[in-house]
């Protein structure tokens, strides 16, 4: 039995014996709202129109963070070497975008239309900081896993 066959069988068993609760996303949003995390960090918002199972074959993740003044959209994909590529877009005037993971930090300047990317990022917990121009407050995301 190949690894792919084994993972397919495990996924089928998990879906049969431990299905994802239908109200999981609604409960998560309620918990975040109660905790009022938006005071300290940008709030992770659910992406409408993106149908993706919690458990699946997908090797990509799309996340959106917003603090009310700026929004960052991240598309995370897995490279063949096991590392990650993070493509992002910011709708605010940012002078640079920083990706932090533990003691390591990657820095880039957004291109036209706010596009930026980080390549060869190892799996783990990350945080994005968008350094905005002028008097605007920087956007700092909560930690997320890549």
Would you kindly provide a brief summary of this structure?
The protein is α+β, with helices and mostly antiparallel strands and 146 residues long. The chain has helices at 3-17, 24-35, and strands at 43-45, 60-66, 71-78, 84-90, 94-101, 104-108, 115-121, 125-132, 139-140, 144-145.
Major beta sheet, specifics? Answer: 5 strands, antiparallel
For the termini, the CA-CA separation is 29 Å
How would you write the strand order of the largest sheet? Answer: 1-2-3-4-7
Gyration radius from CA atoms, angstroms? 17 Å
The H/E string reads HHEEEEEEEEEE
Compute the average pLDDT: 81
Instruction: Tell me the total number of β-strands.
Output: 10
Q: How large is the count of helical segments?
A: 2
Structural class: alpha+beta
Question: What do you see in this structure?
Answer:
By secondary structure, this protein is α+β, with helices and mostly antiparallel strands. Helix content is 18%, strand content 39%. The chain contains two helices and ten strands, in the order ααββββββββββ. The strands form two sheets. A five-stranded antiparallel beta sheet has the order 1-2-3-4-7, with no helix packed on it. Strands 5, 6, 8, 9 and 10 form a five-stranded antiparallel beta sheet that branches. It is globular and about 55 Å long. It starts with a helix and ends with a strand.
